[in-house]
Amino acid sequence: MNKLYPDAAAALDGLLHDGMLICAGGFGLCGIPERLIDAVQASGVKDLTVASNNAGIDGEGLGKLLRTRQIKKMISSYVGENKEFERQYLSGELEVEFCPQGTLAERCRAGGAGIPGFYTKTGVGTLVAEGKEVKVFDGEEYILERGIRADLSIIKGWKADESGNLIFRKTARNFNQPMATAGRICVAEVEEIVPVGSLDPDAIHLPGIYVNRLVVGAPYDKKIEFRMTRPRPTGTAA
Questions:
Q1: pTM (predicted TM-score)
Q2: Which residues pair with 153 in a beta bridge?
Q3: Rounded to an integer, what distance in angstroms lies between the CA atom of residue 207 and that of residue 192?
Q4: Phi and psi, residue 110, nearest 5°
Q5: H helix runs in 63-214, sequence order
Q6: In a 3-state reduction of DSSP, which class is residue 86?
Q7: CA pair distance 131, 111, nearest whole angstrom
């Protein structure tokens, strides 16, 4: 099975439709599938539900899809750096399902492992627990969280071989791994694709069985969410 595609648009061809659920990897602007997000935007698909740790920032990452009103609902744990997200949510244009960060990761991992739901103490006694089943284990209350099974996963990796075995680089591993397994179809963009057998089997983070399509997204511009600088000191030392 050939998993290699010439560009992001080709890799998503035939997979997108209105109203679908997409799991998107990344944390802030770290490890986000930039080329695939651009291709989703260019396709014009709408009424999307997107499960992602956050929605990027204004005009970057998933923020691009918010700006074009293609996202109907976000399932997220953090949204504090996106003014457009805030505006759409407060005006009632965007539905938001807030989910604790660890719970979100586990919901995606569970979905990928075929686990329809699990109980957790996180959120007990808060708004997170409203409308959810509560069960007592050893005298403690736990709430039922549903696993997430998406129509499509879009993720970003560092290096992959031609069969889809994939390595993430450092912090960019973040949500990409559980998001990848949660999708019925997973499309990965990577910085480099190497021949089968080139990767150390012990170094592979995501087995190729989870990856359906691959595209090289490089080169990338390194985007920084917060650039903290201070004026260069003036004068010379005595």
A1: 0.91
A2: 23, 186
A3: 16
A4: -60, -45
A5: 63-67, 83-90, 101-112, 176-182
A6: helix
A7: 20
- Give the pLDDT score at 235: 67
| Cα–Cα distance for residue pair 108/98, rounded to 1 Å | 14
How far is 155 from 176, CA to CA, in rounded Å? 6
Residue listed under structure tokens 């890799």: 11
Average pLDDT for consecutive 10-residue bins of the chain (238 residues)? Answer: 95 98 94 97 98 92 96 92 90 95 97 97 95 97 98 98 97 95 98 97 97 95 77 69
Instruction: State the Cα–Cα distance between residues 71 and 63, nearest whole angstrom.
Output: 10
Phi, psi of 197, rounded to the nearest 5 degrees:
100, -10
Q: For residue 197, what are its two tokens?
A: 């057998």
**Contact indicator for 28, 81 with CB cutoff of 8 Å:** yes
Q: For residue 2, give every residue at least 6 positions away whose Cβ sits within 8 Å of its Cβ, in sequence order, or none.
A: none
186-190 and 71-76 strand pairing? unpaired
State how far the alpha carbon of 143 is from the alpha carbons of 76, 117, 120, in Å: 18, 10, 5
Alpha-carbon span 115 to 224, nearest angstrom? 36
Closest Cα to residue 142, out of 155, 154, 133? 133
The strands making up 21-24's β-sheet, listed across from edge to edge, are 95-98, 71-76, 48-51, 21-24, 152-156, 186-190, 213-216
Q: 178 is written with which tokens?
A: 């559980």
